[in-house]
């Protein structure tokens, strides 16, 4: 129940940000976006269809046919997101009026940031906004020989062609800018949330370093054999995953034992197995 409430919190807050992204930025500024939201905006311009209603109607068959593919929990959470966000979008558009920004490019960039925050929160909650991701998995299930990335790319191209036909080529360009900023925002948030670091240490004194890591940091260590291609000498390298706040003590340990040791550090988005961590993940 505790985990469910935590996921629900992230989902609800993500829905609020997602509705702000559509109703307060994208729609008033005459922008477009990819996925089913882009199709809904195009239908709104063509036939006056309510954007939220169109989103729900298009998502319903996708959830029905893709229920087994995405799993019960994921599908249920995603369905909640679609209904809440669609309701909020239509509600805010019916009762509130938002002014467009003077600069359309600024609106596109800000929309990308807000949507990136929204998607990150929703992903942390273990769900999605439904739409083209589910349809891509359905097509992949029917056509297993076709790569999923290609299916998603073709879907995006079709949506952008529709947007370009209805709203003009400029709208497609702004949509691409939004998509790029959204992706970078999600990456930045994940980097900030990732409290784990993967470290590789190549040293001539591996035993002492391993001992200090185990005693002072309380982390398990893997020792692997390697050979330097330049010197053709056998080397041992240490592999360890630590919390971000343990990075400075680790550097001090290595520097005090072997100042010439070669060390690489990489952010880890998620760790499975016997590892105590406090980070969230948007994966």
Automatic annotation (TrEMBL):
CC terms in the record's Gene Ontology section: plasma membrane
Compartments where found: Cell membrane
One Pfam assignment: YitT_membrane
Annotated signal sequence range: none
Cell cycle is among the record's keywords: no
Membrane spanning stretches: 7-27, 47-67, 74-93, 105-130, 151-177
Swiss-Prot/TrEMBL keywords: Cell membrane, Membrane, Transmembrane, Transmembrane helix
Membrane topology: Multi-pass membrane protein
Chief location: membrane
InterPro entries assigned: DUF2179, N-reg_PII/ATP_PRibTrfase_C, UPF0750_membrane, YitT
Sequence ranges assigned to domain DUF2179 in this UniProt record: 219-273
Family matches, as Gene3D superfamilies: 3.30.70.120
Protein name from the UniProt record: Uncharacterized membrane-anchored protein YitT, contains DUF161 and DUF2179 domains
Source organism phylogeny: Bacteria, Bacillati, Bacillota, Clostridia, Eubacteriales
């Amino acid at each position: 129940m505790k985990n469910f409430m935590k996921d629900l919190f992230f989902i609800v807050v993500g829905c609020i940000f997602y509705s702000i992204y559509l109703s307060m930025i994208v729609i008033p500024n005459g922008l477009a976006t990819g996925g089913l939201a882009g199709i809904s905006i195009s239908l709104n311009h063509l036939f006056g269809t309510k954007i939220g209603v169109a989103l729900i109607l298009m998502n319903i068959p996708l959830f029905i046919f893709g229920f087994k593919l995405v799993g019960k929990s994921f599908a249920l959470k995603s369905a909640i997101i679609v209904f809440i966000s669609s309701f909020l979008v239509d509600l805010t558009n019916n009762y509130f009026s938002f002014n467009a920004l003077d600069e359309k490019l600024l609106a596109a960039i800000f929309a990308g940031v807000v949507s990136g925050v929204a998607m990150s929160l929703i992903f942390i909650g273990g769900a999605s906004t439904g739409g083209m991701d589910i349809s891509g998995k359905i097509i992949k299930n029917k056509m297993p020989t076709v790569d999923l990335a290609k299916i998603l790319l073709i879907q995006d191209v079709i949506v952008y062609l529709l947007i370009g036909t209805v709203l003009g080529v400029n709208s497609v360009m702004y949509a691409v800018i939004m998509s790029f900023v959204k992706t970078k925002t999600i990456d930045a948030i994940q980097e900030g949330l990732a409290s784990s670091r993967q470290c590789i240490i190549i040293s001539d004194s591996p035993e002492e370093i391993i001992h200090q890591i185990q005693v002072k940091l309380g982390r398990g260590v893997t020792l692997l054999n390697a050979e330097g291609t330049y010197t053709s000498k056998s080397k041992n390298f240490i592999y360890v995953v630590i919390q971000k706040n343990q990075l400075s003590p680790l550097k001090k340990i290595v520097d005090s034992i072997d100042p010439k040791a070669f060390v690489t550090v990489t952010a880890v988005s998620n760790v499975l197995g016997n590892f105590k961590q406090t980070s969230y993940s948007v994966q």
